[in-house]
Design brief:
Length: 172
């Protein structure tokens, strides 16, 4: 089921999401809905709070070309990350980011180049993942959502002011 996306400046985006304790069917339904919603909106990542659920859950699906399935974001290529913890962060990276909660706006953001993360999958099994490329950026962006932060908060004051002005004009 496709769920509604929470759009900036909705206050829910400021919520600090809670640890997942129950790895049950309602969590699985949430993950499945998040995938459907993300693909429907042409996103590469989504945090649960973006569909109004304040749990430490995020998904990432970096498009690939799957000729057999005729789909570039097959479900089995979805990384489901629950209760993530940073183990290592190093280097610097700058990448143009966007967000389904700030539709149509893209800007360069400073992040760590490489991250190493411990997380749980939908069955509660622990895993470790590390990356120094686009996945690293996406994970950092989505973990920010779990802590109530949106990428525009990382912009310079000047760019932020310009954004807020543009955003207001766009909506009126
Ligand atoms: Co986002």
């Amino acid at each position: 089921m496709i769920r509604d996306i929470v759009v900036y400046p909705d206050k829910r985006l400021k919520a600090v999401s809670k640890e997942v304790v129950d790895f049950d069917s309602s969590l699985h339904a949430l993950l499945d809905d998040m995938y459907e919603t993300m693909v429907a909106k042409n996103g590469v990542g989504l945090a649960a709070i973006q569909v109004g659920v304040d749990l430490r859950v995020l998904i990432i699906n970096i498009p690939i070309k799957d000729k057999e399935k005729g789909q570039d974001q097959p479900k089995d290529n979805t990384l489901e990350v629950i209760n993530p913890i940073f183990l290592e962060e190093e280097g610097k990276s700058r990448y143009e980011e966007g967000c389904l909660s700030v539709p149509g706006y893209y800007e360069y953001v400073d992040r760590y180049k490489k991250v190493k993360i411990e997380y749980q999958d939908r069955n509660g099994i622990k895993h470790i993942i590390e990356d120094d490329d686009f996945l690293s950026i996406a994970i950092q962006h989505e973990i920010d959502h779990l802590n109530g932060r949106v990428f525009i908060e990382k912009l310079s004051i000047l760019k932020r002011k310009k954004f807020e002005k543009e955003w207001k004009n766009r909506k009126s």
